[in-house]
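Hi R.,

Here are the chain sequences for the assembly we discussed:
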Amino acid sequence: MKLESIIGFLEEFAPPRLAEDWDNVGLLLGDRKNVVSKVMTCLTITPDVIDEAVERQVELIVAHHPMPFRPVKKITTDSLVGTMLWRMSRAGISVYSPHTAFDSAAGGINQLIAEKLQMDQVSPLQCSNDGNNQDHLNRSGLEGAGRQGMLPDAQSASTLCRRLCSLFSLPLIQFCGDLDANVSKIAIGCGSGGQFLADAVRTGCDSMITGEANFHTGLEAIACGVSLFLLSHYGSERFAVEALADILAGEFSELQVWVSQNERDPVQNILSVSDRPVD
Ligand SMILES: [Zn+2]
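And here is the predicted structure of the full complex:
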């Protein structure tokens, strides 16, 4: 299978025109004429993820977060990014990153979160940012940043906290607001989605689900009466690269596709009563 065929599918599934202006998406390392038989997905490329890719002779890593993200002037082992790029180049590993195009796609991460919650009347929280005259490309009406929609039943914030832990297989989540408040209209922004709070308020959402947000965003949410549910960055996105591996395997039966087994959330939760991480 030629790498360019896989790229063609990924560009249709998560169109690069949906990516934010500041982002760096698409084929970031490699040769589109290369032949690929093993593909590994991951949230983020780390030395551990590269170890697995080299050991299992992967030709393509589909990493949600771009590597490299910022422009690099040197690819040497004097820096961490240089070391990782050098190792992957020498092992013949290409890198493709869909990032914010995957966040905003019709079948992307924010849509998948809305579907996990069985939400109704789901639409983007912001309109597609691809400028004028391209609305005709947004055939589904589901392309755009973030999501908003209704839970099938109004429930208390504490009930939604427990549901989120169970749906995302998380030992805990963080919450800002009143646990007894009723929640029904939800804004969604995966990863670091604090910038969506203003959109959540503007669209009349009583709640927002994101991965991580800072202290001041938490205070602002409380002041605006928006219940804020924080799943952790990893918790809000890792499930989607697991889903992406399944989608690629379904599309290309000749490929071996899996999600990285070495990848871990870099943040561990330590309880005060124990020095062991919460499983
Ligand atoms: Zn992210």
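The CA atoms of residues 156 and 181 lie 6 Å apart. Residues 65, 191, 233, 237 surround zinc ion (CB under 6 Å).

Let me know if anything looks off.

Best,
T.
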